[in-house]
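STRUCTURE:
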């Protein structure tokens, strides 16, 4: 995993952060891939995508998302620091949740809970939770309605950068409907049929 920099050289603290992301221990359902980082937001950036796949039902995708770590030694005012995590998480939900007035608040609480469960420090958090309801008509009328939740969030991480990636992956697992795992417990694959 290599972070992109505008100058071609990386400061040591950015290289350590990229290493911490590489070393983060994630659940086996999380498939992480490095992708090109944004070019103009910060001098240094690294970007990852993740898919949460079901190990029980033949590798079905349950959720997906993107985690971008930005580093700007000038510490932009809105960030309240030199680092910024910019994230996206998406999953399909049960259609009956489309009209739940608490869905947005619950989605945001899942992010905050994931960060707090790992006892992580963060400031300047911001984001949105969006529900997307798709209904089909005419020639597609036989398709069931679908509901997707999207959590877009950013925050300035304090402390261990790899742990922030782990918390974000916890959010992805939550919106995918996977049960939380206690610290130190590894999920066993389900029975294959």
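SEQUENCE:
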């Amino acid at each position: 995993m290599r972070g992109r920099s505008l100058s071609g050289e990386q400061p040591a603290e950015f290289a350590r952060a990229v290493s911490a992301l590489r070393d983060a221990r994630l659940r086996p359902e999380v498939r992480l891939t490095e992708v090109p980082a944004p070019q103009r937001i910060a001098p240094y950036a690294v970007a990852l995508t993740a898919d949460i796949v079901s190990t029980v039902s033949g590798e079905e995708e349950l959720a997906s998302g993107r985690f971008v770590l930005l580093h700007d030694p000038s510490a932009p005012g809105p960030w309240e620091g030199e680092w910024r995590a910019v994230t996206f998480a998406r999953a399909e939900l049960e259609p009956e949740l489309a009209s739940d007035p608490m869905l947005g608040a619950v989605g945001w609480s899942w992010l905050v809970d994931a960060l707090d469960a790992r006892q992580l420090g963060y400031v300047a958090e911001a984001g949105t939770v969006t529900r997307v309801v798709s209904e089909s008509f005419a020639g597609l009328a036989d398709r069931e309605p679908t509901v997707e939740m999207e959590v877009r969030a950013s925050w300035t991480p304090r402390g261990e950068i790899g742990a922030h990636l782990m918390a974000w992956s916890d959010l992805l697992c939550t919106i995918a409907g996977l049960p939380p795992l206690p610290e130190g417990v590894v999920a066993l694959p389900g029975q294959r049929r």
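REMARK: Helices lie at 12-23, 103-117, 161-175.
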